[in-house]
Amino acid sequence: MLRVYLEFAKKSFQKRMQYRIANLAGLLTNFFFATVRILVFTAFYAAQTEPMPLDLNEVITYVCLTQAFLMVMPLWGRAEIAETIKDGSVAMQLAKPVDFHGYWFADECGKSIYYVIMRAIPTFVLARFLFDMWIPLDLTVIILFLFSITLAIVLGAAINITAFGTVFWTLDATGIVGFAFTLSTFFSGFLVPIALWPEWLQQIAAWLPFEGLVHLPFSIYLGKLTGGAALTAIFKQSLWVLIFVSLGRLILRRGFSHLVIQGG
Amino acid sequence: MHALSLYLHFVRVRIQSQMEYRFSFLMDTFSHFCVTFLDFTSVALLFARFHTLKHWTLWEVAFLYGMIGISFALAEMIGRGIDVFPRLVVRGEFDNMLIRPLGTFYQVLAYQFQLRRLGRTSQALLVFCIASSHLGIVWTPVKLLFLIAAIIGGICFFMGLFVIGATICFWTVQSIEVLNIFTYGGTEAGQYPMSIYRYWFRHFFTFVVPLAFVNYFPALSLLGKADPNGSPMILSQIGPAIGPAFLSLTLVFWRFGVKHYQSTGH
């Protein structure tokens, strides 16, 4: 049974391979944004005398990481599967004897694997040379990070399906998705590292699922979360994955029970 | 005049069609407001942590942020048709436009109108108003006219970028997203004063891609601030004229592209 879903993931991966030029353009855009953010942070740090929770080199590394993993962040770009619900072609998929949530999940994972290989890894290599991005050499840190970033990607997929699943009720999910996107880019620490936030706002972020997308895995990478704290972070991420997978399944089940297929 | 009234008619139809999904429209406008609001919050968070940015205060940066935000959001609202133009080329729908008795550029412009960008426009306007009241700027009629000219100049600049992106499609057929670097990336870079950037970066965005004229140079003039890098004041005064000049140049390129259009067929 699992083979079917692996096949779905593979197809999703292959579909993206067709757009290699677009990927190259995306890579360039990533680098441009990284450059702007790094220049801005460099200017902010220039006149700084008091010690900061993250030093300039750590912030630069953090910015490079956000650009490397940008495309596996949830709610970013188009969701072809949500569009099939809107235009009715989802009927073909429903006729197949597979679990729809599983199918969607496999599709998201295929997409993420594509972007890790085609976007994240090249970004790492280039950022190492261009911006002197810091790379951990401690094996425990590397293993913990790989665990945490995998969970972040899975959490992203689960949040994606949950948000786009509302398309059953609205037919055009851009509104709700846009709102969820806003919350996730901000509270994940994507725009400004959470470590630089005021204390009270950090407290709020700690109770939300979004920190599991960026803040937790990147803090492990930078060696700010080690040992027990790193394991707690990974446990938190797993818990959120569980919650969003259940929520997504519930939404899809409810949605299909009153789905009207438009067109023929 | 006929073209204008036809364009306005098109805009009305586009708005009506967007109102069909009313809930989604409201949510989307609201979310655009929130996206950009949190965007600005992150600028404020950086100032809360670092206090100043090389001679610039939070409200001065907010002033720049508001100006470029208003220009970009309005350009996206009006120029969305140019932005989605690749789709027309891929599907061969551009053929239809060529046989109609109206300029192709008008038709592409009228193809879409994104009212939901009002969310972002109002957020940028709000930030701008708060910033200008904090800075205690006295809005004389001359200053107000200069501001409006600068905003229109900014809209022209971004529309010019859309036109370049669309024109390239005549040759490549598919959409080349490299121009995103200058539209989205430009808005990001323009939120902060040009003077904080490195030499090569600053000069590129002044003389090659004239982003600095959208908000940085006009803002220097409105704020009565001298450029810390010592560029002449004349650059600030001619700022608003650069956008329309840039757009006219790109339209020449557009006309050249239309001549080279080969239909993909239906």
Instruction: List the total number of helices of chain A.
Output: 12
Distinct helical segment count of chain B:
12
Q: What number of domains of chain B?
A: 1
Report the uncertain regions of chain A. none
Distance between the termini of chain B: 33 Å
Measured on Cα atoms, how large is the radius of gyration of chain A?
Answer: 19 Å
> Which two chains have the most extensive interface, and how many residues on each?
A-B, 38 and 40 residues
Overall 3D form of chain B: globular
Per DSSP, what share of the residues of chain B sits in E-state strands of 2 or more residues? Answer: under 5%
Q: Helix and strand string of chain A, N-terminal first?
A: HHHHHHHHHHHH
Secondary-structure element order of chain B, as H and E? HHHHHHHHHHHH
Category by helix and strand content of chain B: mainly alpha
Tell me, rounded to a whole number, the average pLDDT of chain B.
84
Explain what you see.
The complex is a heterodimer of chains A (264) and B (266). Chain A has 264 residues and is mostly helical. Chain A is 72% helix and 0% strand. Chain A is built from 12 helices and no strands. In chain A, helix 7 runs antiparallel to helix 11. In chain A, 47% of the residues are buried. Chain B has 266 residues and is mostly helical. Chain B has one domain (2-9, 28-259). Chain B is globular, with a radius of gyration of 19 Å. The mean pLDDT of chain B is 84. At the A-B interface, helix 2 and helix 9 of A face helix 2 and helix 9 of B.
Concise account of the structure shown:
The complex is a heterodimer of chains A (264) and B (266). By secondary structure, chain A is mainly α.
Task: Give structural attributes.
heterodimer; A: 264 residues; mainly alpha; 12 helices; B: 266 residues; 0% strand
List the helices and strands and how they pair.
The complex is a heterodimer of chains A (264) and B (266).
Chain A lengths: L1 H16 L2 H27 L9 H13 L11 H8 L2 H5 L5 H31 L8 H26 L2 H4 L3 H14 L11 H8 L8 H7 L5 H31 L7
Helix pairs in contact in A: 1-6, 2-3, 2-6, 3-6, 6-7, 7-11, 7-12
Chain B lengths: L1 H17 L3 H29 L7 H26 L1 H6 L3 H5 L5 H8 L6 H17 L6 H32 L7 H11 L8 H10 L7 H8 L10 H26 L7
